[in-house]
Each structure stands twice: as C-alpha cells, then as structure tokens.
Amino acid sequence: MASGKHPAHPDGRDPDSLDRALYRATIRPSNSLGRRGFRIVMGGCCLVSVATSVWCWRMGFWPIAGFFGLDMLALYAALRVSARRGLSFEEVAISQLEILLARVSHRGERREWRFNPLWTRLATVEDDEYGLQRLSLVSRRQEVVVARDASPDERARIAADLSRALAQVKKGY
C-alpha cells in the first residue's frame, strides 16, 4: 500500500490526478474595437455627419440633417450592442474523466455540456479561402459548436490544442 490517503493505482497513477484538467481555455469573441476605438469611430462619424448636415441645411435640404442624426444614433446603438455581446465567453476543460464546455452569455446565463473524452471527436468545416469556419465537439449523437465567435485563425489554434488534449487523454487509457 502506498503512503497517502489512497492506495496505489494498478497503473501507478495518482487517483486524484484523474479530475485535474489537462487542458483549460477561456474563449472570448473577437473584438476589434476597444473603448478608444469606439470613441474614435464615433467621433469621426459625428464630425462627418455634422459637416454634411450643416452643408445640407445651408443648401435648403434641412430634413436630411435629421436623418444624419438618426444614423448616428443607430450606429451608436449597434456599436454598444456589439461591445456588450463581446462580454460573452466559452470555457473548455478536458480531464481524464470528462470534457466540460460551458457557454456564458453577455447576460450571465450559463449553459453546460459534458462529454466522455473517450467517445468524443472534433469535427471541422474548413474553407480554402477563409480558413476554419466551424469547430464542433461530437459525442454519440450530440454535436456542440466550440469557439463559435472566434476568428478563423484563433479557431484553428483552439482546434489544434483540443486535438492534442484529446489525444493525450486517449493515449493515457
């Protein structure tokens, strides 16, 4: 009998290590526009809008100025919604016992999927021009998309990391 709280595993493994994650990642959506970028884009668009509105007003096309204001309001709302959606993320953890995929929305709602790593494979859809378009975990009859909001390059990197982790788990058995 080995020293410690557990008897020795027949394969010489530490039983506590089975729950430990071999791979763990937090995947966030690509967000190309930060706070400073938001201010620059809105400031530039507002300047162009005001200059064009003043010119239209002076030429007698005063209703157009109001439409430019509505355009700026719509652009502001769209950029704010995009920034808020950027708060969502996915967590992936692979251990010897399970694969955990958790998706957390921008509202904080959490949804989880659990898979047996021995029965799980990766499915990909690639485009010659645009790269890796879709990455999924497939186990039995269940398929869940992973890194759905990541860029194709980041999705390819995540696919390589997941493949290595799954191979490591399957090699250990």
Describe this structure in words.
There is one protein chain. The chain is of the alpha+beta class. The protein is 40% helix and 28% strand. It contains 3 helices and 7 strands, in the order E-H-H-E-E-E-E-E-E-H. It has helices at residues 35-59, 62-85, 152-171; strands spanning 21-27, 89-95, 99-104, 110-115, 120-127, 131-139, 142-146. The strands form 2 sheets. It has a 4-stranded antiparallel sheet, covered by helices on one side. Strands 5-6-7 form a 3-stranded antiparallel sheet, with helices on one face. Strand 6 and strand 7 (142-146) form a beta hairpin. The protein is elongated, with a radius of gyration of 25 Å. The two termini are 23 Å apart. The model has no long low-confidence stretch (mean pLDDT 86).
Estimated structural class: alpha+beta
Distance between the termini: 23 Å
The number of distinct β-strands equals: 7
Task: Please give the radius of gyration in angstroms.
Answer: 25 Å
Q: Give the ordered list of helices and strands.
A: EHHEEEEEEH
Give the mean pLDDT.
86
Largest sheet: 4 strands, antiparallel
Strand order of the largest sheet: 1-2-3-4
Low-pLDDT regions = none
- Strand proportion, as a percent range, falls in 25-35%
Helicity range: 25-40%
Tertiary shape: elongated
* SS element count, helices: 3
